[in-house]
């Protein structure tokens, strides 16, 4: 019997039961079926062999194969230079290494140069340059002229030198010395606040005091206005000095200012207190503001005043005097005369910061050269710390309507002094509820000013950038439109007695009236008819930044905006489309396999 007879025989009409194929075998079988599908042949009939392999891997391959095929597909179609050589199949390893090195070097150089551009755009976005054309002087206001006499008292009313020695001797128990009366103490305490700081070694009075008391006391003992401001001219026309000069309170005491805005326009409602209101101005500065200048409808005599041209005849002329008997070397030192400050009409005068000294028996000519910095509208969307200035509506001060660096610093000093000493100096902005420092707090507010300067310096140094001022607690950046009045001064001896005609009765009367007085003559005017304006503008705007970056990307990598869109397209739309197609194909093949099985 043969061996075949011993094997079990399966009848021809029975079907053998086979084990189910594995999942991998199912996919292989599905792929085999798809290869012979006529629909697929029609789809790839026009493609190259590499493209057919890529599409097959995306549709039917494993996840890794599909991802690799998608990368190859991007390399084949991208417009970025050098990428397609990395994606080419069957390329020698040496070629691939060469293109990888070139691509890495290009990317590194491009990134480094782009970071340099970013640094300039981020840290140096602003450039200050001259404007395209010059500006005539009649487009800006004449400076506010604040005059403060060095003589603080009339000796026949109050002798500060004698009072100082009397107080010191009385406190040191010198025999035969009596104390000052209450009124004299009040005047002494008020005058001490405008005298030199070294005289504050004597403590007298209270720590706080009503501000109006101090101002009234200073006004009571100060030289009379008509004895100080003898003759005035504006634009070569004689005017009464009392018509153009108005009383203002500064840290130097009672001063008088020409062409300054009224306190009602300078201060907000909270800062308008009786201590600062000495006049009611009928006119308002409707035709002028700091940022826009004069309106087109402004006439030749607007408010604040402006000149129509350069030269002494078009400016301000002052003839001032002082009685020698009232000179007090103890209070202000051995220098007599006047302090003159030129400032913007909207600023509160701070005489101690910068001033010109006008000595007696001198004629002084002050020729002004304006210095104006404006800011282009293209910088408005920048942060103030980047452009290093504030527009008027960006920074609101508590007490001032008009923002300027000077007003901001004065308000910050007032706040710091209030925190440090519990009071403010009589000239500082405040509301009606803030206490004013009395005679016993003179040292405190002087020390507070020094401490604030040191704190601002330290904070600014710590936070300073490469080309930017460091942010501080006050953070008083300049105004984006600012006006400064730089001056050139010349002077000569002035013998006023020679101009008085002693032969006439009027001349003799004038000479007798001016006996024992010293005189000064001052002329303030613009030097030139036009001046150059500086302008802040964008050094690297957004357009410049994009153009420079695009140029580098195009130079080193051939990248354009469409290349970036293309990359986004392959990472989103194309990827989603391929995944959906892959999922759909798998579902169809699973149905076909199940149906065939």
TrEMBL record:
GO-annotated molecular function: ligand-gated sodium channel activity
Segments crossing the lipid bilayer: 552-576
The keyword Aminoacyl-tRNA synthetase is assigned to this record: no
Keyword terms, alphabetized: Ion channel, Ion transport, Membrane, Sodium, Sodium channel, Sodium transport, Transmembrane, Transmembrane helix, Transport
Record membrane topology: Multi-pass membrane protein
Subcellular location field: Membrane
Cellular compartments per GO CC: dendrite membrane; monoatomic ion channel complex
GO biological process: one example: proprioception
Similarity section: Belongs to the amiloride-sensitive sodium channel (TC 1.A.6) family.
Name of the protein this chain belongs to: Pickpocket protein 28
Gene encoding the protein: Dere\GG14431
